[in-house]
Write a structure and sequence with these properties.
The structure is a homodimer of 433-residue chains. Chain A has 433 residues and is an alpha+beta fold. Chain A folds into 3 domains: 77 residues, Flavocytochrome B2, Chain A, domain 1; 183 residues, Sulfite Oxidase, Chain A, domain 2 (Alpha-Beta Complex), CATH 3.90.420.10; 121 residues, Sandwich (Immunoglobulin-like). In chain A, the strands form 6 sheets. In chain A, strands 9, 10, 11, 12 and 13 form a 5-stranded antiparallel β-sheet that branches. The radius of gyration of chain A is 24 Å and the shape is globular. The relative contact order of chain A is 0.12. At the A-B interface, strand 18, strand 19 and strand 22 of A face strand 18, strand 19 and strand 22 of B. Chains A, B: This is Sulfite oxidase.
Chain lengths: 433, 433
C-alpha cells in the first residue's frame, strides 16, 4: 500500500521506527527469523535497518515487538519489495555443540544439560554456558591491544606483553549468569531468557594479575583495592588452551566472585578510577528490585548494580521427572553450591520430606592446580544419600556459605522484574518406585 | 545426713562433682542466686568449689544442673553447715544502667531496650549490649602489655606504645552477638541466653591498625591477609573515651564484620600464624549446625567456626504489642539492618500484609568521622511508611546486602541447637486502631 518513499516521508517527520509487512499479518516467528531476502522489512530514516536490528538482536522480544506494533503504517506493494542483503552479523559465530539447551540463537545464549554439568569439577570449555549480547567479535590477536587508562597516562598492552611481561597465574573460578535459574522466576511471573540451573560453570583461567602487574604502575589508592582484588586477572587461557571465541578470545577479565557480566569478554579497555562505569550494562541492566517494583516504578539510577553473587545451590542428579528405584530406601542426590565474593560453602542440606529432616551432603571443593589466594572462588560439588518414601517426592537442597548466609525458601520474596538472582532452594520432583 | 568428710571420701573415689542441699529440695532459683553464706554447697576433692562455680557462672543452666543432679548424695547435717566466704568474683563488676534487659546477671549479659536502640546511629557506650562469659577483669593500664607472637620472636606493646607509635585510626563498626535474637529460636526449640533483637550496637573504635602497624614487622604471608584486614585494629577508645570495662578496657581487638566473639576484649596476646586458634570459644562453641543435628550428633571438629555474620534486620519501632493510631492509613516503621564481611545494605523491604506488598525503606548509613576503607562495617538504620489495615497486624522487615544475600523467611530452616545466627525476617505484631 505504501511505497518506500512514503514510508521515508513519514519517518523523517517524527523520527520514528517503521515496520512494514508483506501480508499485513503480524507474525513474530517470521519476524524474528528474518533472513537475507526475507519478506519483513524495517525502515528508519528512509532506509532498511534490518542489519542493525539483527546486530542488536537482544531486542527481538515480545515486549519490543509490541511497542513497534503501534508504528506500523501499512504494507509495501509487491513492486517495492526487493531482496535486501541483510549481511547476517551472526554468520561468523563459532561452532557450538548441538548438546546445548539453546535459550536464544542470535545472540547465542545456551546452557549445557544438567546431567553433564557436575560430572567434572572443571567444566569443559565446550560445555561452558554461553551468554552473548551480540555477535562474537572477530579479533586479530597480533594487533589487539588492551588500553589501560590510568587517568594522567595510559598503557597499551599486547597479548605478547601480557604473556611475557607478567608472571602467569591460574585462578579457578566459577562464573555464573545473573539470570541463572530465571526459568523459576518466569514460572512465577517474569519474562526474559529462561535459563535453567546451568548458566554456571567452573574453569581454570590463566593470565596476568591486575594488582601486582598493572597497578603497581599507579599511585597506591586505598579505595581501589577492594575493586581490584589480587585475584582479578586478565586471562588469555581457559583450562590450558586459548580462550574460545564464545568466552572472550583473545583476552577476558576474570573478576572472581562477581556476576558473570563483570567478567568482561573480548577485553579492550581498562579504566582505573573511583567512579562507577556509566556503561549500559553497569547502569541500566543487571540491577535487582523489590518484588513490588514494576517496570513503571523501577528507579535504575537509585538501585545498586549486581556485583557479588549470593549463595546458591542446585540439584543435578536426579533429573526432574526421573523415576527412581531406590537402594535400601536411599537415593543418591548430587549437585553444585557456590557463593560470590570468595565465600566458601560451609554446608549443603538435602531433604526429601519437605524440609522436616535434612541430610548433610559430602562436599568436594578446591582445585589444587590453582594459584588462588585464601579466597574460595570456585564452586563446591556435593553428594548426599537421602532416605525417600515411595510415590511422588520433591527433593530439596539449600546451602550455607562462610558468611552464614542461606538461600530463601521460595521465589516469591526475591522475585524481581528482571528475573535476576534466583537462589531459592532448588527443588526437583521425581517418582520413587 | 552426710558429713563433709564422707562427701570428701566419695569424691576422691571417682573424681566426681558433689552437690549437697540443706533441705533436699532442688530449687534452681536458690541455687543460681547462691551468695556468700548461702545454704547450697558444692564440693570437689573434699573442698567447696563455689568460688570456681561462681567464676564460671556460665554453667548455671538448666542442662548443667540436671547433669549435676545425678551426683547428689544427700544433705549436710545442720552441724556441718558453716558459712563460707564465697569471695564473689563478680563483686567488682562495673556499674550498669538499670535500663538494660538482663539475660544473665553473673556473668553480666544484657541488651538495651529496643525503643532506644536505633535512636542514634552511634550506640552510646552506656547502652551498648554487654556479653560477658566471666567477671570483668581488673587490668592496670600502665603495666598491661600486649604480647604479639610472631613465631620466631615476639613483641611486647604497652598502651603507651599503641597510642604513640602508631597513627590512630577510627573505625565505625557494628558488633553483634552470635546469639542476637536467639529468643525467636528458643520459642521454636532452643535453650540458651534468650537475647532479644538488641545484642547489637555500633561504635567508633579508635586504635592502631594491625596490618600496617604490627604486621609490617613480619614476613609477608599472603594467606594471613584475609584474616588481618587493614581495618582490624587494636582499639583503646570507644566513641572517643577510654573503652569501658564491660567492653574491654584497656584494649580490645576490633575485627569488623566478624561475630562479636572475635572482637576479643581485654586483649593480652596476638599470635600470628596459619593455624586456627585451639581455644574453647573458637573450637567448641560458636558453631552452627543443620536443623536436624542434635547435641548427640553434633561434630564440633568438622563444623566450621562462625566468623563473618549473615545479613540481618530488625524492627525497633513500633514495639511488639503496640496499639497504633495510623495517620492517613500509614504507620512509620523503623529499624536496623546489617551484614558481616563489610557488605553494605542495598535495600530493606517492609510489609504489613504478610508479604503481599513491600515498601522500600529509606536508608541512613555511613559515619563521616570514620577512617574506614571502602568496606561497609557499620549498620544501616531505616525508616519506612507502610500502609496498614485496622485490626491485628504483623509488620515484617527483610534486608538485602551488597552480595545480594537475603534473610530467610522463618526460623525453621535455620534453627540450630545452639541458637546462633537468628536472621529470619523480623516480625512485630501490633494492633491498628
Amino acid at each position: 500500500i505504501f511505497s518506500s518513499e512514503e514510508i521515508s516521508k513519514h519517518n523523517s517527520k517524527d523520527n520514528g521506527i517503521w515496520v512494514s509487512y508483506k501480508d499485513g499479518v503480524y507474525d513474530i516467528t517470521d519476524f524474528v527469523d528474518l533472513h537475507p531476502g526475507g519478506e519483513k522489512i524495517m525502515l528508519a530514516s528512509g532506509g532498511p535497518i534490518d542489519a542493525f536490528w539483527n546486530m542488536y538482536a537482544v531486542h527481538k522480544t515480545d515486549e519490543v515487538l509490541e511497542i513497534l506494533e503501534q508504528y506500523k503504517i501499512g504494507s509495501l506493494s509487491p513492486e517495492d519489495q526487493k531482496p535486501i542483503d541483510l549481511n547476517d552479523p551472526f554468520s561468523k559465530d563459532p561452532f557450538r555443540l548441538p548438546v546445548f539447551r539453546i535459550n536464544s540463537k542470535k545472540p547465542f545464549n545456551a546452557e549445557p544439560p544438567i546431567e553433564l554439568l557436575t560430572d567434572s569439577y572443571i567444566t569443559p570449555n565446550e560445555l561452558f554456558y554461553v551468554r552473548n549480547h551480540l555477535p562474537v567479535p572477530e579479533i586479530d590477536p597480533d594487533s589487539h591491544r588492551i588500553s589501560v587508562d590510568l587517568g594522567d597516562s595510559s598503557i597499551q598492552l599486547s597479548l605478547e606483553d601480557l604473556k611475557t611481561k607478567f608472571k602467569p597465574v591460574t585462578i579457578t573460578t566459577t562464573i555464573q549468569c545473573a539470570g541463572n535459574r530465571r526459568q523459576e522466576m518466569s514460572d512465577f511471573k517474569t519474562k526474559g531468557l529462561s535459563w535453567g540451573p546451568c548458566a554456571i560453570g567452573t574453569a581454570r583461567w590463566t593470565g596476568a594479575r591486575m594488582l601486582p602487574g598493572v597497578l603497581l604502575h599507579v599511585t597506591y589508592n586505598h579505595d581501589i583495592i577492594p575493586l581490584l582484588d589480587g585475584d582479578v586477572i586478565i586471562a588469555y587461557k581457559m583450562n590450558g588452551v586459548d580462550i574460545p571465541r564464545d568466552h572472550g578470545y583473545p583476552v577476558r577479565a576474570i573478576v572472581p566472585g562477581y556476576v558473570g557480566a563483570r567478567n568482561v569478554k573480548w577485553l579492550r579497555q581498562i579504566t582505573v578510577g573511583s567512579d562507577e562505569s556509566t556503561s549500559h550494562w553497569q547502569m541500566n541492566d543487571y540491577k535487582a528490585f523489590s518484588p513490588s517494583t514494576t517496570f513503571e516504578t523501577a528507579n535504575y539510577k537509585k538501585a545498586p548494580s549486581i556485583q557479588e553473587m549470593p549463595v546458591i545451590s542446585a540439584i543435578s542428579v536426579p533429573k526432574p521427572g526421573s523415576i527412581i528405584d531406590p537402594e535400601d530406601g536411599m537415593v543418591e542426590v548430587k549437585g553444585y553450591a557456590w557463593s560470590g565474593g570468595g565465600r566458601d560453602i560451609m554446608r549443603v542440606d538435602v531433604s526429601a520430606d519437605g524440609g522436616n529432616t535434612w541430610q548433610e551432603a559430602s562436599l568436594t571443593k578446591d582445585d589444587p592446580d590453582a594459584d588462588d589466594s585464601a579466597h574460595c572462588w570456585a564452586w563446591t560439588l556435593w553428594t548426599a544419600e537421602v532416605p525417600v518414601a515411595a510415590g511422588k517426592v520433591e527433593i530439596i537442597c539449600k546451602a550455607i556459605d562462610s558468611a552464614n548466609n542461606c538461600q530463601p525458601e521460595w521465589i516469591g520474596p526475591i522475585w524481581n522484574l528482571r528475573g535476576f538472582l534466583t537462589n531459592a532452594w532448588h527443588r526437583v520432583n521425581v517418582t520413587v518406585e
